[in-house]
Design brief:
alpha+beta
Length: 283
């Protein structure tokens, strides 16, 4: 009889916990998904990448709200039992308060273990996977961000300014600055046309000048027509995995210096040991 009573208690807590966790998680995820829309409107990534990135942030949301929802579920279930006088069923069947609390403690430990697994493995894994989608994606919506009288610098090292866009799609007075590591290029064109289809993405520029700057050397020459490729541009979106996106096992290996590890651009160095310690304690 006692097993049936506690089974009913666990079922009620788990039902409310699961329902609340999904509902609250979806509400928080929806709010965050709206904020993540900047990767489309400002960084030029496609809607598919936006959807994957937003969806893969859901495990981290669950990780953050899980302890609060569990506490709320236990509190709500006990209050409901007490308001309906169902709590006396435990005392009538010889279940004392210490035994009752011990059963709740066991249930809490199970939830805590689930929280640890989620925060130490699944959440960093999903965040790192989301970051990899950004890193490996093309800037599909970049060309749609090009507007007149607006500086466009969502790509790494490239700034574009267009003074006017005509109704037929012709741009007037185009300025481009393409900065490299050791050299830079400035282009002015009196007219331009954007070519954006399945096979190519480029700017056709007409009647202008190009200034190449390489160290102390500067070359300037005129052109009648050139094509500026927009196909393989890199976004300014941060693609380097953060410490909170690294799984706890790798962080522990780095902290205890079991061996030197390298995860993409994450290096196990003495300078970040304090940050790793904080992240381990948070998990």
């Amino acid at each position: 009889m006692k097993k049936l009573i506690f089974r009913k208690l666990y079922f009620d807590i788990a039902s409310f916990f699961g329902t609340s966790l999904v509902i609250v998680g979806l509400i928080v995820w929806t709010i965050q998904a709206v904020n993540y829309f900047d990767i489309v409107t400002e960084d030029g990534h496609g809607l598919k990448i936006y959807f994957y990135y937003s969806l893969l942030n859901f495990p981290r949301i669950i990780q953050r709200i899980l302890p609060f929802i569990f506490f709320l579920s236990v509190f709500y279930t006990i209050i409901k039992y007490e308001s309906k006088n169902e709590i006396f069923i435990f005392w009538v069947n010889g279940i004392n308060k210490i035994n009752f609390l011990n059963k709740l403690l066991i249930f809490s430990i199970i939830c805590m273990l689930a929280q640890i697994i989620l925060s130490s493995y699944f959440s960093p894994l999903s965040k790192n996977l989301a970051r990899s989608y950004l890193k490996n994606s093309n800037i599909d919506f970049f060309t749609s961000l090009i507007k007149d009288r607006k500086f466009i610098n969502v790509t790494d090292g490239l700034t574009i300014f267009i003074e006017k866009k005509q109704e037929d799609g012709i741009f007037e007075n185009i300025f481009l600055e393409d900065k490299g590591k050791y050299s830079s290029k400035m282009i002015y064109a009196s007219r331009g046309l954007l070519v954006d289809n399945e096979t190519q993405k480029k700017l056709e520029l007409f009647n202008g000048k190009i200034m190449n700057i390489n160290g102390s050397k500067t070359n300037i020459f005129d052109f009648d027509q050139i094509s500026f490729n927009l196909q393989d541009l890199n976004s300014k979106t941060i693609t380097v995995p953060k410490i909170q996106e690294i799984d706890t096992i790798s962080l522990l290996k780095c902290f205890f210096k079991i061996h030197q590890i390298r995860i993409e651009t994450f290096n196990c160095q003495d300078e970040i040991i304090s940050d790793i310690k904080i992240e381990i304690l948070k998990n």
